[in-house]
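sorry to bug you again but im stuck and you know this stuff better than me. what follows is a protein written twice so to speak, once as letters and once as structure tokens for the fold. id like you to explain what the token line says about the fold, in plain words if possible. anything you notice is useful, everything is just below.
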Amino acid sequence: MALVEVRVPDIGDFKDVAVIELLVGPGDAIKPEQSLVTVESDKASMEIPSSAAGVVKELKVRLGDKVNQGSLIAVLEGAVPAAVAAPPSAQPTPASAPSSTAI
């Protein structure tokens, strides 16, 4: 599986915002746009979403860490696209006709 790095996106004109909450941990399966951490500046708090789906392999931040745009938050093991499992077709099996033997 491919490893995917999740970084802080452009969050506006904020620098050195504190991580105040970890919303996921190693081993958690996440979806795209699922919130990973909450950060807080002197003006607002905001959740930082994941840019990809996968399983959290490693969190790169801890409570109290300061992050900026581009800071590495987590490493994900990229999810393999779920194969669309088609249910077995419900086509009836033709009944075998009794074989007639000509005498």
Q: What stands out?
A: The beta strands are 3-7, 17-22, 29-30, 35-40, 45-49, 54-59, 66-67, 72-78. Residues 61 and 73 are 6 Å apart (CA to CA). Confidence is low (pLDDT under 50) at residues 80-94.
